Structure prediction request, 314 residues.
Amino acid sequence: MGRRKPGKPRPAPPPANLVPGRVVARFGARLIVEDEKGRLHRCTSRRKLGDLVCGDNVQWHTDEQGDCIVQVREPRRSELARPDSHGRKKVIAANIDQILIVTSPRPAFSPGLVDRYLVAAEVLGIEPVIVLNKIDLLDTAARGELDPLLDEYRRLGYAVIETSVKNGEGIADLETRLQEHTSIFVGQSGVGKSSLINALLPDAEARIGEISEATGKGTHTTTTAWLYHLPHDHGAVIDSPGIREFGLWNIEPHQVAAGFREFREYAPACRFRDCLHRKEPGCAVREAVEEGRISRRRYESYLRILASVENPDL
Prediction:
C-alpha cells in the first residue's frame, strides 16, 4: 500500500465550555455580548465567522488569558441589510421580527423613504410599523398634507402610530406594540428615535453607560446599533444609526413589485407572468392605477424604487 497523502489539517473543535449570548453592540472589531444573566462582556470573534451584528445569537468562551472569544454564530432568522458606500452588503441588525419606521414633520416626512423600508420589510417577511413622531409640531396645514398619506398606508393594512415625546401622546400605544417582539427603530437622523427609546425605556441611559463602560471608551456613540430590553424583558428594541438613504440590498426587480402589497390583487391578471408593470401590454396593475384602484403616488414611488434597483449606480 502506498503512503496516504497528507490532507488539510482538521479544524480544532470548539471548546466544550461555550456560553450562549447575544450581541448587543459592536464597535469595530470589538463586540459587546450579553449573557443569559444580563451581564456584559467585551469580546472578539473568530475571523471565519464574518461580521457579527447587533442581535446575533452567539456562543463564546473565556480563554486562558481571560479574554472573551466568540466561537459560534447561530443561524439568523432574519437580517436587515443595505449597500455600503462601495456597493457591498452591510448588515445592520439580525434576528428582528418588527421594523419601526420612525418619521416626523421635521425633518420633512419622506413617503419615498417609507416606501423603501416597507419593500424591505415585505421582502424579508418582517412586520413593519410606521411611527409619526413629533406630532406636537404639526399645524393645521401640515396635518392636512400628512393625513392623506398616513390614511393611504392604513388602508393598505399597515399599522400607523402617532407619537410625541414632548406631551406623551401615543407612547403607551407604541409600548404595547413592542411587547414580545425584537424590534428595530429605523429612520433619518433627527426624527427622534433615541428620544422615543428614552421615553419607552427609563433605564436606557443606564444601559448606555453599561455598554459604554464595557467598550472601554466610556462614551456613547450614535454610529452603531444598540439593543435594549423592554421592562420585565417583554421584548427588545434595537436603535440603528440614522440612515438618510436606504438602499435595498440584493433585491430582484420582481421582488420590488412583490413589496407593494396592493399590487398582489391585480398582478395575477397581467398578460405576462414576468410583468414589471411599466409599459408591458395587458398590465392589470397599471390599469388599476389608471382607474384609481391603486394610488398613483405609490405607483410612481414603485417605479423610482425599481429604477434604483435595476441601476444602483445612477
Observations:
- Helices lie at 111-124, 140-155, 171-178, 193-200, 204-215, 253-258, 284-290, 296-310.
- The chain has eight helices and 13 strands.
